[in-house]
Write a structure and sequence with these properties.
The complex is a heterodimer of chains A (about 325) and B (about 350). Chain A has about 325 residues and is an alpha/beta fold. Chain A has eleven helices and twelve strands. In chain B, β4 and β5 form a beta hairpin. Classes of the chains: A alpha/beta (about 325), B alpha/beta (about 350).
């Protein structure tokens, strides 16, 4: 059984301009100890998915479908139960650690608070645990006395990681955890996350727009476009031999240095990702798709099997004979 | 001064005069200091953001300037645009130092910033934004007789916003991120520049939109011969569009040369380290540099990279006998391969060794 199982998730935001469907039928599964990478561009609904999983959405938002965490439906939980589940079963590392930490409290107090508030330990024991956690993420224990502004961006992100582990969750959700960091520090933080994940047998849902980062840390990938998953499967084959034209374009945006096909030949797509309230009919990707044919504006494709443990929502996967020869 | 001039001469790639030249540029910023310490007569420490940089940009060339945050790459771009004052050194345009030609220079060297939402005035229409440069420079008719509106229309359509009239009355918030960056590029193009300085031109854009903007920039180079200095932290981007790549570390260029050479056959250990952190499938367990980006107020003696250098840490520099030089002797760029310069004692030694053994063999 999966640790996290999301079925037919729909999220409709309530706005002044009317309802905006941000997530339109998403299925996700994460097994124990597995890392799932969720990729997509801004507005594709990836952050909405995680906010729905942990019920962090605004009150009037309509959420449909099921989210099973350890077999329990998160969407049906009462507030008390929900509080118990957050942090102890699933925790989040948000992007931008500067804004996620309280600037006027020592980081040690913030970690201790996370532990005691969930009844995991008393104050003294929690402090010992905080020291162990901070060492686990590669910072000396005396750093617990620091305020967030005394730490660099990379160190703050390490504190966020320590906090996410404070109540020993089975699932850690990381939302763009390295986006604001410099290249070298990004590599260090990714390595730390991956090492901790392997050491503790954590399941992770890793979200970023940077496909090259995801391939490095994830076992499986799910690619989102306009509120739906358009391709999923094992990371490396999805990245190196994409089945969906959108994944192909996204992978092309992260060139392999040394590969001459990328030299002086930037690859991209015409147009922009659609606004969630204004998704094109049929396959939502067809206006930007270099391979679209006459059925694409009419039929919204399901995820079809596309090889070993892989699926792609493209009519061409089902009907390869319709593919034109690429120029 | 003479060795500076010699270095500048070395960095020259061919006999032709560069369109833009940066000579021995130094830019410093004063660090912050508390009131009490200030009254007690203490001086704030200076951050040497750019500390002796020579660069040449030739007509129609795309040069990528890469490095970690804080290495000084953006400061160079801003100084070229006249947004920062150099402490020493100079910028030369078409062989002449900036001075009385500043006004004309400002027209011919244009900047494209990272975040188009911040670069555009939200209360100005697209037409006003693009026409502003013309008005500032008092240009009401182009050399080929176009009116202001015709010039704006031409710039917008060259930037890929077609038909241009459709965008005239839009405001920035009505456009997508990619379209906004095209407006910023149109604002630069309307003045018919020789040089575009682009600071992380696509890093705020969605991945699928980036390719089209890069294609546009390359097209401008190919069609109009505009030279570009592209500041970026992304070596993949440099691989995609740059003819030459310069790698900066702590205020200095440590390696510069043809993009294919620098990115696939690097000479400097820092360039090698930067290339190692480019994410790739299955690459999570590769070794890479530890530590934070260095502090420009505290520049180490000798080679500035030595405290983090894997060659020094592993002892390879010591066994080659150059370690005392690494920790004690600074050095400039040396041409180790044709057109390919690096500032590294070990790489210099190895290159000399190679040429000697080649001589012995011949």
């Amino acid at each position: 059984m999966s640790l996290l199982s999301v079925r037919d998730l729909h999220v409709i935001y309530h706005t002044q301009a009317g309802p905006v469907p941000a997530v339109r039928g998403v299925d996700l599964d994460i097994a124990k100890g597995e890392v799932l990478g969720l990729a997509g561009e801004s507005g594709c609904g990836k952050t909405t998915v995680i906010n729905a999983i942990l019920r962090l959405l605004p009150e009037k938002t309509k959420v449909e479908g099921t989210v099973l965490l350890n077999g329990e439906d998160v969407l049906a939980m009462k507030p008390g139960k929900l509080r118990a589940v957050r942090w102890t079963q699933a925790s989040v590392i948000f992007q931008g650690a500067m804004h996620a930490l309280n600037p006027v409290r020592r980081i040690g107090d913030q970690i201790v608070e996370a532990i005691t508030i969930h009844g995991q330990a008393g104050e003294k024991e929690a402090l010992v645990r905080a020291g162990a956690l901070i060492e686990q993420v590669g910072l000396p224990p005396w750093r617990l006395r620091d305020y967030p502004h005394e730490l660099s961006g990379g160190q703050r992100q390490r504190v966020m990681i320590a906090m996410s582990l404070a109540c020993s969750p089975n699932l850690v959700i990381a939302d763009e955890p390295t986006t604001a960091l410099d290249v070298m520090v990004q590599a260090q933080v990714l390595k730390l996350l991956k090492d901790l994940q392997r050491e503790l047998g954590l399941a992770m849902l890793f979200i970023t727009h940077d496909l090259s980062v995801l391939v490095e840390v994830s076992d499986r990938l799910a690619i989102m476009y306009a509120g739906k998953v358009v391709e999923d499967g094992p990371s490396v084959p999805v990245f190196t031999e994409p089945a969906h034209p959108y994944t192909r374009a996204l992978a092309g945006a992260f060139p392999q240095i040394g590969d001459r096909t990328f030299r002086m030949a930037p690859s991209g797509l015409p147009g922009d990702p659609p606004y969630p309230g204004d998704v094109p009919p049929g396959c939502s990707f067809h206006p930007r798709c270099p391979l679209a044919f006459e059925d694409c504006p009419k039929i919204d494709p399901d995820l079809f099997p596309a090889g070993d443990q892989r699926r792609a929502a493209c009519l061409l996967v089902n009907r390869p004979e319709m593919a034109r020869v690429e120029p | 001064m003479s060795d500076v001039a010699a270095q500048a001469a070395q960095v020259r790639t061919d006999g032709k005069q560069p369109v833009l030249e940066v000579r021995d540029l130094h830019v410093s910023f004063a660090g912050r200091i508390g009131l009490v310490a200030g009254l007690a007569g203490k001086k704030a420490s200076m951050a040497r953001a750019v500390d002796g940089v020579n660069l040449e940009l030739h007509a129609g060339e795309v040069l990528a300037l890469a490095g970690e945050s804080g290495c000084g790459k953006t400061t160079i771009a801003r100084t070229i645009l006249g947004l920062e004052k150099p402490r020493a050194g100079e910028i030369r345009f078409e062989g002449k130092p900036l001075g009385r030609n500043l006004r004309q220079y400002r027209r011919r060297v244009q900047m494209v910033f990272q975040d188009p939402s911040a670069a555009l005035n939200p209360r100005q229409t697209i037409y006003e934004s693009v026409a502003e440069g013309l008005r500032v420079h008092g240009i009401s008719r182009s050399e080929d007789g176009l009116s202001e509106e015709q010039m704006v229309a031409r710039a917008l359509s060259r930037a890929g916003l077609r038909p241009p009239e459709l965008f005239y009355l839009n405001y920035p918030h009505e456009l997508s991120g990619g379209q906004r960056q095209r407006v910023v590029i149109a604002g630069a193009l309307v003045l018919d520049p020789e040089v575009i300085v682009a600071d992380e031109p696509v890093s705020s854009l969605d991945a699928s939109v980036r390719g089209e903007i890069l294609r546009l920039l390359l097209g401008l180079r190919n069609e109009f011969g505009i030279a570009m200095l592209v500041v970026t932290h992304d070596l993949g981007l440099a691989w995609t569009i740059a003819d030459r790549v310069a790698v900066m570390y702590l205020g200095r260029i440590v390696e510069i040369g043809p993009a294919e050479q620098v990115l696939t056959n690097p000479l400097h250990p820092y360039t090698k380290a930067l290339l190692k952190v480019v994410p790739e499938a299955g690459g999570i367990d590769r070794p890479f540099l530890t530590g934070e980006p260095p502090d420009p107020t505290r520049i180490p003696p000798g080679c500035r990279f030595h405290p983090r250098c894997p060659e020094v840490v592993s002892g390879r520099a010591a066994s080659a006998g150059v370690e005392p030089k690494c920790t004690g002797e600074g050095l400039g760029l040396v041409e180790l391969r044709p057109g390919h310069f690096a500032a590294c004692h070990l790489a210099s030694l190895e290159a000399r060794g190679l040429s000697q053994s080649a001589d012995a063999g011949a």
